[in-house]
Amino acid sequence: MLLSLTYSLLIFLSIYLLIFFTARVLANNFYETIFRELITKFKLPVFLLFLNIALIIPLILHKKSKFLYSALTQFLEISIIFIFSWIIIKSMHQFRLYLAQKHRIDVEDNLKARKIHTQYRILERVIRILILFFAVAAALMTFKPIRSIGVSLFASAGVASIIIGFSAQKIIASIIAGIQLAIAQPIRVNDVVIVDGEWGSIEEINLTYVVVKVWDRRRLVVPTTYFIDNIFQNWTRKSSFILGTVFLYTDYSIPVDEVREELDNLLQDNKLWDKKVKVVQVTDTTEKVMELRILVSAKDSPTSWELRVFLRENLIKFIQQNYPEALPKSRVEIKK
């Protein structure tokens, strides 16, 4: 028994060293970043997995093992199940990091990247829950008493699922809504949205809730069902390109052409403007004021916000300095 354990340990230790020696050679010669990351993250779990396999094989082959050996065999089986699950979860995490490098969301045209990240993050969470569930189930099935009543448990699973379904309707609805968000994608990571009157961007999409980062750095934690059942604004549904509006209310005497000329001056060499759209229009009139709408474009929503603030401030200053008589006023006509 001891001799077979020694042989098994030597064999699997050799395989382990060969695998990581090969990965180190590849890291030094070809894919340095990828393989160095793999060596760092998977060194411990792979070593534990090989160690458990090396110990369990002689114990399984030793048919006439005593109680201590049986207990040790069961412990090693459970260890292999959880270590293997650990390796799969870490692999999924590493693949997410690879996607973050391959499809960056901090670039101007990031629509495809946000779509991929949204789908994978939700898929990763679903698979992680399933892996943990099956790992615990497989570990429990190594115990003979539990294995013997497994058939009756499966037979009663239908009744249990109905009871659980009624008692956890909201949780199940939230999970299903999270899966719907991954497939239909009414929102994606980094989308700019208006939710319940709050302007912000999608920071996290989880199975049961979504985190919205508000412009003043607050976080709204919104149930996933909200984005299925309610109306909300998504400013970057098709692209990050967005139009910004500035409204000015002036007297009828304002020369609109002069405002257009000043807009051209303000946008010239302005890095906030993407040089696609610039319009000044009279969009409404009342008995007191005339409404001017300045329409400009920017590469994304935060830039559009900065551009709108800049234009609003400088156009008001332009009117104050050059046409103060065109500021909104009330007229009173006195007849003698």
Automatic annotation (TrEMBL):
GO cellular component: membrane
Keywords per UniProt: Membrane, Transmembrane, Transmembrane helix
Domain Mechanosensitive ion channel MscS, residue spans: 171-237
Gene3D superfamilies: 1.10.287.1260, 2.30.30.60
InterPro entries the UniProt entry points to: LSM_dom_sf, MscS_beta-dom_sf, MscS_channel_2nd
PANTHER family: INNER MEMBRANE PROTEIN, YNAI-RELATED MECHANOSENSITIVE ION CHANNEL
Coiled-coil positions: none
Stated name of the protein: Small-conductance mechanosensitive channel
